[in-house]
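User: Predict the complex with 3-phosphoglyceric acid.
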Amino acid sequence: MRYGDLKYLSLGEELDKNQYVTCQYYLETDLPIVNAANAIAAEQSTGTWTKASTLSDDIFERLAARVTEIEDLGKKTVDGQILNVARTTVNYPLEEFSIEVGHIPQILSVIAGNLYGLLELKNVRLLSCLFPDSVIRKFPGPNFGINGLRKVLDRPDRPLVGTIVKPKIGLDPKQTAEYVYKCGIGGLTNSKDDETLVDQSFNRIDDRVPAIADAIDRVRDETGHRIVHALNVSTYVKDIVEIAERAVENGASQIMVDVLTSGYSALQMLAEADLGVPLHVHRTFHGAFTRSPYHGMAMEVVSLLSRLSGGDGLHIGTFGVGKMHGDPEEDMASRNILFNDIGLKTVMPVCSGGMHPGLVEKLVSISGMDVQIQAGGGVAGHPDGVLGGARAMSQAVDAVYKGIYLDSYAEDHIELKKALDKWGYVPGSDHV
Ligand code: 3PG
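Assistant: Here is the predicted structure with 3-phosphoglyceric acid placed in the model:
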């Protein structure tokens, strides 16, 4: 049998957590579960499908991953085949990682690499990952974090409320800037490029940035209100810092990167470039490997890696209230990873995708006040246009902050009323 040598099993052994990266996996297999767990540890460290004559005792002792726990979750039938289901803990010794430099790619190749393709594992999902302090300290972490972002916006405790400029592609720089201006006047704190807009011919970064900066200045001069716009610089990693630096010189107030298509290194390079503006992190592509509960990788791992790499705000989903697939419990786990005490600044959870004013009360009843809520269609689709949509979103956030139910607040806030009439209202969990 492939991976039949069960030498990677150390069941019940108490290892020093400071010396290992500890990962939890869910697995479905037609093998006995001990063989399947052993296969993960072997393939992802010193082993392969058969015994290699070159694997010395010394290499094994220093570098072999150890399986310390296997929880038998019973059986399941898939396409007529009976599979064994389990959860297992695999510990990777620190020496297995190029951690002296603190970079994500090689770490991912270890903890989430070849195992996904092994025939022995019908499904396998990386559920969580725990790094010792010595590893965490190698990474930059957020430069701004939640507190820094709030300071930039002079918004100490209310949820941040933003938009994604729509249509996601097609507007020119002037039209984009006008959109941002209306959002600022309407009370939004954040605006952003969509994940597919970067530097297309119809909206070049060099033209978009100064136009938006000017719009943001006009909002400030006219009302005193602060809004930032996240400029998407997702591109060839070699150029990304230069593009971001030039954008900041030209007035960009926030930089955005699609972390999963650009790579964690792109995010880390931006964080280490110390641009002087916060970094907004979009997770587009995550559904390819987070959506199945049985296979791939949990979003909380993406959250942790994005925090290590230096994101100040990260899309985490909408706790099941918006348009994108999302398990509320998983979204909460992602949020908690952005907040827990690991010696790095906290990251602002961004809830985006199908949001509109009528969902704000429900969302905040789950997320709490430390959240950035964003609506694209939920602003641009308002009956009174972008300005009306911005006002309605802003009013919804003010209402929940003040502890007033949206249906009551809408009685004397016309833009909110029109939004609730158009898209409906989902009351918060504590609505009486
Ligand atoms: C995003 O970037 O989250 C989406 O583009 C959201 O757009 P929507 O608010 O129109 O769903």
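The chain has a mean pLDDT of 96.
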